[in-house]
Design goal:
Helix content is 32%, strand content 28%. It is an alpha+beta fold. Strands 6, 7, 8, 9, 10 and 11 form a six-stranded antiparallel beta sheet that branches. Strands 1-2-3-4-5 form a five-stranded antiparallel beta sheet, sandwiched between helices. Strands 12, 13, 14, 15 and 16 form a five-stranded mixed beta sheet that branches. It is globular.
Length: 316
């Protein structure tokens, strides 16, 4: 690979959001992405350094993938070689991903075994009460009495935590959402209060499923979905319907309801940036095309449904 080809490849990886210190050849390499924090390595690439130089790359977190081929016009044999390299890299990437998923699943299970159901009067109950939310009756939220907090590869403390079980469409646990707290139910003084673990499967469409879909007065099976767990619980209090938490705006955008549900309420955030509104709108449009009845509901004021719940209670 000459200097120009190396520069072109580095620019292609950078344009894809990958941060690569130096190019390594003929093996699958993990690397940071622009969105990774700490020791996370969500990016990957594989460079085949032969007569035709081919690189495949992507982001495990988002599923983004790309292919780069050196040179200008390629012959038929060159294109065939590039396609073969891309298939080989895909097989290697999928094998590595499955291996990582299995490792992550074991780590999630260890944390889950240390959790217990939500308890009245504990840090999680106090935290939710401070947000105007009564203690929910759900197995999708649990509490951990002494969860380690990792920062830059080191444990910097142990804290009570609210744990949300993130499951996929088949009910398989793919992640745990952690909210670090103080013993008296306040947000812990840590760099990032709310964090996901490393995933044990695809997060596409995965949710914290608090409650089963319910029948409305018309006999329709209904369900609400919002971003965060607190937002979902607050919306459930306000509207009297079960609401699942999609964890993030991206999760809301990719939400897929159970096929038996007939009416979906998309309870988006009212963000100044418009991110929450757009995610809910795009999800609603996609669900409508799939045959669901989807209604979009956004708070009147900037904020989420937990902010709306607190504002309404303060006005009483």
């Amino acid at each position: 690979m000459n200097i120009q080809q190396l520069t072109d490849l580095e620019n292609a990886l950078l344009a894809a959001g990958l941060i690569v210190d130096r190019i390594e050849y003929d093996k699958l390499v993990r690397c940071k992405t622009a969105d990774d924090k700490g020791h996370k390595r969500s990016g990957w690439y594989r460079v085949f350094n032969g007569a035709v130089i081919v690189a495949t790359f992507g982001d495990w977190r988002t599923g983004q993938r790309g292919v780069w081929v050196s040179g200008g016009d390629l012959s038929l044999s060159d294109r065939q070689a590039a396609e073969a390299f891309a298939k080989q890299a895909k097989a290697e990437r999928l094998a590595e991903q499955e291996r990582q998923y299995r490792t992550n699943a074991e780590r999630l299970e260890i944390i889950l075994q240390e959790c217990r159901p939500l308890q009245p009067g504990g840090p999680v109950a106090d935290y939710l009460n401070g947000r105007g939310i009564p203690l929910p009756n759900t197995e999708a939220l649990m509490q951990h009495d002494r969860l380690p907090y990792w920062h830059d590869g080191q444990i910097t403390g142990h804290y009570p935590a609210m744990i949300g079980l993130v499951t996929d469409a088949n009910g398989r646990l793919v992640n745990l959402h952690r909210t670090y707290l103080t013993p008296d139910g306040k947000k812990a003084d840590v760099p990032i209060v709310k964090k996901l673990c490393a995933s044990a499967g695809s997060m596409n469409g995965a949710c914290i499923k608090m409650g089963d879909p319910a029948l409305n007065k018309k006999g329709e099976l209904i369900l609400g979905v919002s971003e965060g767990a607190e937002t979902a619980l607050a919306a459930s209090c306000l509207f009297g319907i079960p609401v699942w938490a999609a964890v993030s705006a991206h999760g809301l955008k990719s939400f897929t309801p159970p096929p038996e549900v007939q009416k979906i309420y998309l309870l988006g955030d009212n963000d100044e940036s418009g991110t929450g509104q757009l995610a809910a709108k795009e999800c609603g449009q996609r669900l409508a095309r799939a045959g669901f009845s989807a209604g979009l509901v956004i708070p009147d004021s900037v904020g989420d449904w937990n902010d709306e719940l607190l504002a309404r209670r303060a006005a009483i």
